[in-house]
């Protein structure tokens, strides 16, 4: 059991030691290790998304009394791969009136930003790629950059639907970033650190979801909105805006957006697990298994919400953030601060 | 209904009246249509223009209005014969907005011009369509 | 102050939520609808012109293709109009079968309304639930005529084929399950907070406006006017059944939604009574082989379709083809009110408004 727990940490140390024994400087070895780590992240994310997309289709099928994909492989597990191949081989269509540079870079920016989120996530005990002291802050600020990619896509497409989708996305981001940060701040106040590993370690005795139930609820709502997932999938809203910011995209460029959304989904679910559900902490299993398990369970809730609820109206969405979520999170902050002060 | 008939006989002597399932009023000159419609709408509460269509009788057009009073369910049918050479009639949109689409449809398919209609354009056929297909002398291109 | 501008955006005819080929040219100020213009005719098939070159019998299948979501209702309207023109009365059993098929069509159409409204406002799952249940009605239609969607089952003067044996258990079990289906819809949709926020107080159509614009059917009743042709002027044998007219109060989208759910219950009530009272016997009246109504005779017959007042105006010149046939299409006239109820609302309300007006473009464009 001990070996499994520290398997990846030992592996990393072994690689560094091996490189140093081969006569490489310590800095050089660290850099190579970092590159390996990034490559692993990219690989893990890709495989993970293939599973995720299949899972979402299966679960939506279950919710909607359908079978979901069931032709390729057992239970249709290879369906996503087939889709990926199809998307990769599709013609790359760029409408003639678009702003070419912005149009082309938008999906790349989006996927890069969503991959950047993984850098600070502690996947296990001591298994963050970069154990940033400002991990939470980094995650939030990078996460909100994704909207720029959507704005680029909407603006560059030169399509009114896309523009409307982009406008919605920006408005939504501005409104929901604030309650999101405030809810996380309440957790940070208790943990006393912005480092994610420290926050996980602070949940040794009790998960923060029990100490901060209000913050959890507000965080979860705001996170759903930040993820552009149903019932807050305003920028896409296919029944209203055809496909919103993605209207003009097809083939692999569209697939990149799609991938980035799922990348974000997993990242945010992992963040939820880290901030509220004790992250990688758990009995019996090694720590690097606990985080994915918790993240997947949280993701199931995201799926469940999306496939049950109708889409909320844009102005209700904004009103809900400014009139309900922000006051509630602020009050929660004040209460948390007072309690912490008196407990000291 | 009795008052209505009396008033129509007095004010519109040219109108012929038949009582069947509908109270059918037949008008020969288009000029007295609008006053008659106004009387029905404002004087007798016929608030619901259900159907408006036209028939091409080769020697004349007949525009047909089916008007109800709801929820009492009294029904009037008005038939206006108009000249085939100069198919024009007053629009009923000012009385019943329901006439808007239906008059456009009649204009589109039968080629009857409704004077005073706010937006008399083709509605079912493309704007550059030539001819009015429901006329009996229409020859498809 | 920044200079702002309106944008004109074409909702449809190629749009996921326009129920066919509806084209709403919308002027937007941000997300607010400043103005709206409805363009029709994208699925115009000149049905009225076609009618002039078909015999009365040959025209029956075209009716199913008008309102293909409630296949038997337009067929019934047309057949009754021709029967009225000929002065034929139907055998008892045929009348009852007609009522059963018509009300089943109404339920199918309203179920599709609920489902399409659900998907239009983003609740994808609602669509699937309604389609699952509507499928059972489609199966029953298939039993009777071999066709599911556009089953020209009715004939002038009655029916050619009686209901098959397997139809009765199917319709009974459907009616028994219907309350549970409706419970499911209500749990999933009607009680949902977001759905209520989206539908309540949006797309308000006052009773005066509804009457003035010639709106009919559930849309009119949702505005608070208790006018149902089945009650006001019973055609066929509708005067024999006990049923209520569900009426809304405000005429907003929510009322239009709830009225239709309640109409499903009323239709089920009618079917139950019809099944109980249905006699055995003939299913077709004596109809001349070549149908030639009297010269100069004309008729305007209207029925309460699932979309509203569906009228057939037929003029005969004594020949075997109608001299002129006009369809008073409720979808067409109901759409006239779309700009009125959408102006001042949000773009998202427009989608809900289109869905709750429940137009069928095959009927609107004819």
TrEMBL record, chain A:
The keyword Signal does not apply. Keywords: Cell membrane, Membrane, NAD, Quinone, Translocase, Transmembrane, Transmembrane helix, Ubiquinone. It comes from the Bacteria. One of its GO terms (molecular function) is quinone binding. Its EC number is 7.1.1.-. It is a multi-pass membrane protein. One of its GO terms (biological process) is aerobic respiration. It catalyses: a quinone + NADH + 5 H(+)(in) = a quinol + NAD(+) + 4 H(+)(out). It is found in: Cell membrane; Membrane. One of its GO terms (cellular component) is plasma membrane. Belongs to the complex I subunit 1 family. NDH-1 is composed of 14 different subunits. Subunits NuoA, H, J, K, L, M, N constitute the membrane sector of the complex. This is NADH-quinone oxidoreductase subunit H. The gene is nuoH.
UniProtKB/TrEMBL annotation, chain B:
Keywords: Transport. It comes from the Bacteria. Residues 33-139 form the NADH:ubiquinone oxidoreductase 30kDa subunit domain. InterPro entries: NADH_DH_suC (IPR010218), NADH_quin_OxRdtase_su_C/D-like (IPR037232), NADH_UbQ_OxRdtase_30kDa_su (IPR001268). One of its GO terms (molecular function) is NADH dehydrogenase (ubiquinone) activity. Gene3D superfamilies: NADH:ubiquinone oxidoreductase, 30kDa subunit. Belongs to the complex I 30 kDa subunit family. This is NAD(P)H dehydrogenase subunit J. It comes from Thermosyntropha lipolytica DSM 11003.
Automatic annotation (TrEMBL), chain C:
It comes from Thermosyntropha lipolytica DSM 11003. SUPFAM superfamilies: HydB/Nqo4-like (SSF56762). GO terms for cellular component: plasma membrane. Its EC number is 7.1.1.-. This is NADH-quinone oxidoreductase subunit D. One of its GO terms (molecular function) is NADH dehydrogenase (quinone) (non-electrogenic) activity. Keywords: Cell membrane, Membrane, NAD, Quinone, Translocase, Transport. Belongs to the complex I 49 kDa subunit family. It is a peripheral membrane protein. Its main location: membrane. NDH-1 shuttles electrons from NADH, via FMN and iron-sulfur (Fe-S) centers, to quinones in the respiratory chain. The immediate electron acceptor for the enzyme in this species is believed to be a menaquinone. Couples the redox reaction to proton translocation (for every two electrons transferred, four hydrogen ions are translocated across the cytoplasmic membrane), and thus conserves the redox energy in a proton gradient. It catalyses: a quinone + NADH + 5 H(+)(in) = a quinol + NAD(+) + 4 H(+)(out). NDH-1 is composed of 14 different subunits. Subunits NuoB, C, D, E, F, and G constitute the peripheral sector of the complex. It is found in: Cell membrane. Pfam families: Complex1_49kDa (PF00346). It is an enzyme of class 7 (translocase). Gene3D superfamilies: Cytochrome-c3 Hydrogenase, chain B. HAMAP family: NDH1_NuoD (MF_01358). Residues 120-295, 297-366 form the NADH-quinone oxidoreductase subunit D domain.
